[in-house]
Amino acid sequence: MTPVLIVLTSFLIDPLIASYRNRIVAFANKQRLVTMFPGQEYVDAGGLMFYGGSIPEMYRRAAVYVDRIRKGAKPSELPVEQPVKFDMIINLKTARLLGVTIPASLLVRADKVLE
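The structure corresponding to this sequence follows.
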């Protein structure tokens, strides 16, 4: 059977739901679901993969906005920015558990690979 990738999106960032991350990851792995999560914490808890905007970089950009506002810029006049730096984290232990082979070309591009 061909694995299906399940992308679990931003609703998992909600603090209440995120507090259940270990249970969510355990359920996904038990059901042998190939998953991509919205935060590194899920991969640290045993999730397969994270790909998304770099959280540290987004905080740095937010600090620039705060600085501009403190210097008198009107928030309504500041441009909306999209992330420009993305992180990819792959958990190879989970990949082995699921029987999924991660291509070498993807592993080379990953910012972090958990063994």
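Helices lie at 15-18, 21-30, 40-44, 55-70, 92-98, 104-109.
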